[in-house]
Amino acid sequence: MSHFTASGRFKTRHGFQEFTKTIEAPNEDVAREHVFSQVGSQHGVKRAEMELDELTEADGVEA
To answer: Which residues contact 12 (CB under 8 A, 6 or more apart)?
Structure first.
């Protein structure tokens, strides 16, 4: 599996909160879904309130 690094922001009561998350997934589409799922669950926000600015495959990360 590959490691992906996602960065973006989500809407809060006081503006926007930025985040960066590293996810292990078989491909970019699955990684994107995991990011939305995990950030939404942790912070109680919906996908429509999140913006994913960048999703890149991380180099040199070992499991």
So the answer is: 43, 45
Rounded to whole angstroms, the Cα distance separating 35 from 12 reads 17
- pLDDT at residue 62 greater than cutoff 60: no
All domains in the chain, ordered by first residue: 2-57 (3.10.20.10)
Query: Which of 55, 60, 61, 7 is CA-nearest to residue 31?
Result: 55
Distance CA 40, CA 34 (A): 10
The string of pLDDT tens digits covering residues 8-33 is 999 999 999 999 999 999 999 999 99
> 27: which residues sit within 8 A by CB, 6+ positions away?
2
